[in-house]
Structure formats: structure tokens, C-alpha cells
Write a structure and sequence with these properties.
The protein contains 13 helices and 15 strands. By secondary structure, it is of the alpha/beta class. It folds into two domains: 167 residues, 3-Layer(aba) Sandwich (Rossmann fold); 159 residues, 2-Layer Sandwich (Dihydrodipicolinate Reductase, domain 2). Strands 8, 9, 10, 11, 12, 13, 14 and 15 form an eight-stranded mixed sheet that branches. Strands 3-2-1-4-5-7-6 form a seven-stranded parallel sheet, sandwiched between helices. The chain is globular. The structure holds nicotinamide-adenine-dinucleotide (NAD). The site of nicotinamide-adenine-dinucleotide (NAD) has 25 residues, from α1. Nicotinamide-adenine-dinucleotide binds next to α1.
Amino acid sequence: MKVRVGINGYGTIGKRVACAVAAQDDMELIGVTKTRPSYEARLASAEGHPLYVAQQEQAAAFEKDGLKVEGTLEDLLSRVDIIVDATPGGVGEIYKDLYEKAGVKAIFQGGEEHGLAGVSFNAYANYKEAWGAKFARVVSCNTTGLVRTLFPLDKIIGIEKVSATIVRRGADPGDSKGSALNSLEPSLKLPTHHGPDVQTIMPWIGITTMAVKTPTTLMHMHCIIADLKKETKERDVLDVWNNVPRVRMVSGKHGIRGTANIMDYAKDLNRKRGDFMEIAVWQDGVRVVGNTLYYYQAVHQESDVVPENIDCIRAMMKLEPDAMRSIQKTDKSLGIGK
Ligand code: NAD
């Protein structure tokens, strides 16, 4: 029998996870919640995703706009085995009791604290930690990006310590309240939270981070310096990442000079919504000097966590004991790696 999945919060992340769930043969998308009859609500309806409202009083506006509502969040919870909470950061916390009372497992996103779920998740690094769990949190886009390249590097070569600068997109493309138009804004709370967030998955790793907010919407860029445990050649580092699903090498020599080219490439690959779910590492930007590795990677913040949510559902619902098999199944269904 397929696992019944609901999505609470159909925004940037929620709408992508909804489509990804609908693409799995071991899951069924039962419905998604919206608070207003926005274009995204119409899109959900057009995609065949049953619409629910977060609160009963919101239903009238949908019906006035000709959108069929199947019920409230409580109704949705009574029909699912697991809910993916993709509400804005800090809102998921308010819903935890409701999920618990309904006897439904829940996945929270990176805008929530680690303590809310007790398990922070990345499919490649700690799939087994979410096995059968009642609650888990798929870490943020930046943390997912850092763990995707650092975990395999640490496993195969060994990392002494990491220092990274996160050059952050100011807002998502659809968000009109972004960062200042003509300004680079350093994060003054140092070191930033990104390092400790990586440690929720790799508690043994020494990592410190800084961040700068920039007036771009497309992707984040990470500038990473890692002290390795042994002298290593660039070829060895590239070999590690070439064997990691969801890390994809790009090259300046082939015309990928920046994040705009990656987004263009994703469209040319016919990726849904123009998403690029892999972490893009510039192979000609990888340098090793002695034991020190330098590299750049780009993170498509709107989509890199989507396949992680799918694998997290599989682990929590005990659908597939083998992490790599789940990853391969998810990637095949979403066209990742092609
Ligand atoms: P978003 O604002 O795009 O979408 C949130 C959705 O939740 C909207 O549709 C909104 O209408 C709905 N919502 C608001 N309040 C609600 C409520 N009380 N009940 C039900 N629904 C409600 O947000 P997002 O960018 O998709 O972020 C969702 C989560 O994913 C956050 O924890 C965020 O930190 C995390 N995340 C975001 C990104 C990103 O770059 N956008 C990347 C990775 C993780």
C-alpha cells in the first residue's frame, strides 16, 4: 500500500515537494493546504492536488473564487500517514502538537530548530537516524549543500576543519520583499548559524561560517576552505564527488561562469520549474595546496531539499532500508543526475 502524504504550506518548498511526492510509486499525495486562493492555489488545483485550508474561515474565499476545498488541515491530517510541514520558518513549531494529537508523523524544514524534531536529516549522511522516527527536520538549503560535499569528503579523505563563506541570495525569485537592491550585507552575528547546523548532522566536524546577503535571487554560492587530514590531489577530491549522487560538476571552461548559467542549464535540461536539485561544484575551481582544499559550490535554494524530503519520508515510513536505493529511486523519478 502507498504511504499517504499531506503537505502543510504550499509555497516555494511545499509546491515542489508536492510534485515530487506525486512522482513516487510508493507514495500518494492526499492534499495540500493553502491559506489564500492565490495563483499557487490555482496551480495546485490544476496539477490535481486536492486543496485544503489551514483554517475553516479561509474556505469561503476559495469557494468564492471557484476553487474546490476538500476540508481543513485537521481533515487532511485524518487522511494521511505523514505530513510535510513547509510553512514559513517558526510556524511549524506551532503545529507540532496538532500533528502529534492526530497521530501523524511530520517532517519539518530548515527554518525550524533542530530541537523541534530531534533528528536533522540528510539522505546520504544519516538516513538511518530517521528510520521509523515520528518527527524529523530536513535541514536548510545551505546546510544541505554543505553536508552534500563535506560528508563524503570527510568519509573518504578525512577533514580536520572547515571554514566557509556563504554568499546568500537576497530573496527567492517570487519574493518581492528581498534584500537591499544595491548593497552587500554581511551577517554581523558571527560565526553564523550555518556551521552549528551542519553539526546537527556531522557533530564531529569543526566548521565555522560567515555569510553575506547579496541582491540576487537565483542561487547561493559557497566559498569553502577545508583542511584535510592528509595530503591529497585535486583528482582524488573530484573522484569523491563524482561518485556522490546530488553533487554535479560544472566547469567555467564549458561556459558555466556563474549561477545564471546554471539556472539556464537547468532550463535547457528541461528540469521542472527550471530547478537544479544537485549541488553544483566548479571542477576548475577546486584547488589543493598541501593539505588545504579550496572550492566553490552553488546551491539552488528552492529545490535542493526536495529529494531529501522524499528520502526522509521513505526512512520515517520504513519503506526502504537502504539509503542508496532510496536516493537512486528518488533521483530517477525526478530526473536528477541526467
Ligand atoms: P514560503 O513563504 O514560500 O511558503 C510557505 C507557505 O506556507 C505559503 O504558501 C504560505 O501561504 C503558507 N503558510 C503561511 N502560514 C501558514 C500557516 N499558519 N499554516 C499553513 N500554511 C501557512 O516559504 P518557503 O520558502 O517554502 O519556506 C518553507 C520552509 O522551508 C521554511 O522552514 C524555510 O526556512 C525552509 N526552506 C526554505 C528555502 C528557500 O530558499 N525558500 C530553502 C530550504 C528550506
